[in-house]
Amino acid sequence: MAVNLRNKLHHDNFVIYEKAGSIGGTWRENTYPGCGSDVPGHWYCLSTEPNPYWERYYITQPEIRAYWEEIYRKHDLASRTVFNTRVKLVEWDEENGVHNLTLEDVMSGQTIQTQAEVVIQAVGFFTTPMYPDIPGKEKFTGPLWHSSQWRHDVDLKGMAVGVVGNGCSATQFIPAIAAEPYYSGHQLLSHPTMDRNEEWAKWAFAHVPFLMYTYRSFMMITGDLLWNIFLANSPLSTVFKKILTWYMRRTAPAKYHDNLIPTYPPGCKRLILDSNYLATLHQPNTGDKISLDAIIFGTGFYLAKRDVDFRGIGGHTLKHCFESEGGYYGTVFPGFPNLFTIVGPNSASAHASLIFIIETQVDYILKLMKPIINGKAKSLEVTQKATTYYNTWIQKRMASTIFLSCFSYYRGDNRTSAKNVATFPGMISLYWWITRKPRWNDFKVVGGEQWFYQRRKVALTNYALVGLMVSVVGYNFSVLWKLVPGLKERLLSG
């Protein structure tokens, strides 16, 4: 977002608030052994900043963090960043048309007040760890932690370790900590050697024109075509389930089949890349009922629960919007002028790169922000009518999918909501298409009525010109149809 504010809108008057002491987000916080992306590296990076030198097909956490740090340095964003500062409250001041921000210096505890005309929330989904409510958990005296807060000071060698959860994180770190001998330091990854990118491939991606972009496009198109597996009663979903069931029966110990193999359709919960997790269950040091020395929770995150409290017109909270109706394109919300969200409700993808979704949203937000930055409008707010219409369309599409066939984090913080609040029910190419340009009639514009009227006038003029051209062409063709002898017979006869 920051890079594009500079490059596309030529705007440098912005501040990035980061509660930690460095950048990196989820790839800074998650440092558990085996941590990496389950999306191919060449698809999990910015289209404007491709990296031909990824070491692996599925890239590791150190590589990903280094990639973002290099982009941060390349574009000199340090001068616009305030570290160790937590945003506690963002509240819209309707009278003055600004957001009042309450900040906290996490080092000193000092409270700071400031204002901003526009606020962009880029917090992300996976920030607040979720711990299950297990009776007696508080009585455990050994080390206990969440996978996103890995205890590198604890040497697990020789310990009996209990792992709660078997989602994306757990299936990555379990093979690593179960390896013999276990290396308790940073990054033991168990991906096979064949996962490494060959040197000739790196050279080709770096030097052959358009090769990397062609490869990325191929990955996007083929991945998007798999969207049909998420449709209820889809033949492709049925075939996919049989393939996955066959793989799990072939790979996992037979005694775990009943507990491991889901009864719900594949994709209802997040699909998991097998990082030797199933094979690890055959090892003699896994699966026993024993007294534990340490417990690790790989139990995911809250989606709606955030550290930041957002309040809009009339004191409405953004958390309520997340958990109730949702937003508009997962980006803006009625009652919250000049507030934009990256990866909001129903904007994530269950089958493709989140980076593509983020780039799509950033481009859309820039188009909405442009009149504000250029001084042609003071504030912009999506209407309730447009939001209701959009979410009705979302839920209608969602009803034909498999996303409500099981309990999952897609269904909010209690996992049992009647709605999927996370994923977009369609191909990512469809999401790109509907966000490619703003529908300005869906917004209330304050301080830019003249600009809005001018845009509408231009749009109506263009529509009128197109209509006139179609009428002229149609009229001329009808005249020819009547005047030219035999034209009708020749055209109809081919």
Describe this structure in words.
There is one protein chain. This protein is α/β, with parallel strands linked by helices. 35% of the residues lie in helices and 12% in strands. Strands 5-4-3-12 form a four-stranded mixed beta sheet, with no helix packed on it. Strands 8-10-9 form a three-stranded parallel beta sheet, with no helix packed on it. A hairpin with a 4-residue loop joins strand 3 (85-93) and strand 4. The longest helix is centred in the last third of the chain and has 35 residues, at 449-483.
Q: In angstroms, what is the radius of gyration?
A: 26 Å
Q: What is the total tally of β strands?
A: 15
Provide the residue-averaged pLDDT.
Answer: 88
Overall 3D shape? globular
Portion of residues in helices?
25-40%
Going across the biggest sheet, name each strand in turn. Answer: 5-4-3-12
Low-pLDDT windows of residues:
181-194
| Biggest sheet features | 4 strands, mixed
Straight-line distance between termini:
55 Å
Class from helix and strand fractions: alpha/beta
**Discrete helix count:** 15
Order of helices and strands: HEHHEEEEEEEEHHHHHHEEEHEHEHHEHH
Strand content: 5-15%
